[in-house]
């Protein structure tokens, strides 16, 4: 297999040679990515879209509050919190959700652009034999629109949304579903996450977690370094 010098082939022989056969560890063979804040710099888009929908009913969420409480949660969960904390009528949830999702798609179509470092990293990882998946708390239409707008869709073996599981993050269901469909074990997975709800889900799934602060932290070099670190722990 032809690989960049910086990319690891999915081959555990470099590890297994130093351990007893019955205790050979699995190497990292799959990388699972959150979407918002990891591959797409869309946190602000979700904030703006939700507030535009809420403003129709005289309600608003501050930016600090959104980051502290709502970041990474599905829109329906955000609306449930607003009902409990601020009395938003449940009867409005469906209408507000529909407006918010429509605005999010509009923002995606006008703002979502490719980031070369992500295209390069995913191309190299895919060429190296890694299985790749997106696991997002966004709805399916948003995941599709953002992956197409960023020109990343073709690199992934699997793209999951909050509509593909019964419980969204912080529950681990979406990561467990991805592992099952990719036919990999948790210890074979590196999960790239950026917010507390996603990190909680990733840890609960049993996978290895790589935490990032922004989309610009997601580089081939950092991912390969993390794979090396994980596999070093498994020696």
Task: Characterize the structure shown.
The structure is a single chain. This protein has 235 residues and is α/β, with parallel strands linked by helices. The protein has two domains: 13-41 and 114-233, HAD superfamily/HAD-like (Rossmann fold, 3-Layer(aba) Sandwich); 43-111, DNA polymerase, domain 1, CATH 1.10.150. It contains ten helices and five strands; from the N terminus they run H-E-H-H-H-H-H-E-H-E-H-E-H-E-H. The protein has helices at residues 13-16, 43-55, 63-70, 75-86, 93-111, 116-127, 140-149, 173-182, 196-205, 220-233; strands at residues 30-33, 131-135, 158-160, 189-193, 208-211. It is globular.
CATH class of the largest domain: Alpha Beta
According to DSSP, the number of beta strands is 5
| Estimated radius of gyration | 19 Å
Specify the helix fraction band: 40-55%
Task: Note the total helix count.
Answer: 10
* CATH architecture type of the largest domain: 3-Layer(aba) Sandwich
| Overall spatial form | globular
Average pLDDT for all residues: 90
Q: What is the rounded distance between the termini?
A: 24 Å
Could you state the oligomeric state of the chains shown?
single chain
Runs in which pLDDT lies below 50 for 5 or more consecutive residues are 1-5, 12-25
Give a topology summary.
Elements: H1 13-16, E1 30-33, H2 43-55, H3 63-70, H4 75-86, H5 93-111, H6 116-127, E2 131-135, H7 140-149, E3 158-160, H8 173-182, E4 189-193, H9 196-205, E5 208-211, H10 220-233
Parallel strand pairs: 1-2, 1-4, 2-3, 4-5
Helix pairs in contact: 2-5, 4-5, 5-7
